Amino acid sequence: MDTKLKIGKYELGSRLIVGSGKYKDFETTKQATLLSGSELITVAVRRLNITNPDQENLRDTFKGTNVKFLPNSAGCTTAEEAITTFRLTREATGIDLIKLEVIGDTQKTLYPDVLETIRACEILSKEGFTIMAYTSDDPIMAKRLEDAGAHAIMPLAAPIGSGLGIQNPYNIVFIREAVSVPVIVDAGIGCASDAAYAMELGAHGVLTNTAIACAQNPMIMAEAMKHAVIAGRMSYLSGRIPKRPYATASSPIDGMIQF
Asked: What's this model's pTM, rounded to 2 decimal places?
C-alpha cells in the first residue's frame, strides 16, 4: 500500500499538484482542479488578491473544498524579491507552505537562477517556511537546495509551458538518488503520458498547469492527469521488468510434441 506524499509537516493524498494560471475564469479553475483530485494548487501571490476585498478572489472560489493554496514567487528575479514576497504573504494569509522560484531568464526560457534560489532558501528555511524549490534538472544543485533547507525539490522537465515533456529522464533519476526529500517534476508536462513517465522514473509527484488549462477540454485532461499520476506511481512501486535485447517466451516449452 502506498503512503501519502509528505512535504515537511504537510501530508497530501494526491501526488498531483496543479496550477491556477491560464484558465478562462476562476470557476473553470476550480472544476478542473477538483476533477484532477489534486489537494494543492499553486498560485502567483498577485492572484491571491489579499489586499482588495472588492475584487474577485481565488481563495473564495475554493472555500468548502479540501484544496490548499501553494503561493509561488513567480516573476521574482532576485532572492530579496522572493523573500519579501513570502514574508508579506505569510503575514497576510498565514500560509507557510511555499513554492520558491527565482527566474534567471525572463525573456525566453524562464529557467531558474538556482544560485539566487539557494540564497533565498537558506533564509526562508530559517524563518520556518516549508519550501518547495523550483530548479533546473541538475542533481548537484538539487542537493545544495536540500542542504539549504528545501523540503521538496522541483526540477523542470522542460521549459515552463512548453509541453515538451521530460527531456532528460536520467537527470530526474539522478536527482531522485541525490536527495532524501520528495522530488516533484515541474514544468514542461504536455499530456498525461508525460506525467505517468515522470512517476515511473521515481518522482514523488508532478506539478502541471498549462497541460490542463490550455487543453482543448481542460476537464477531461484534468481527470486524465489524475489517473496518469496514479498509474505511474503504481508502475514504479511494482517494479518494471528488465529490458532485454531478445525475445523471451511467455509460454513454457516443456511438454511440446517433438517431431
From this structure: 0.90
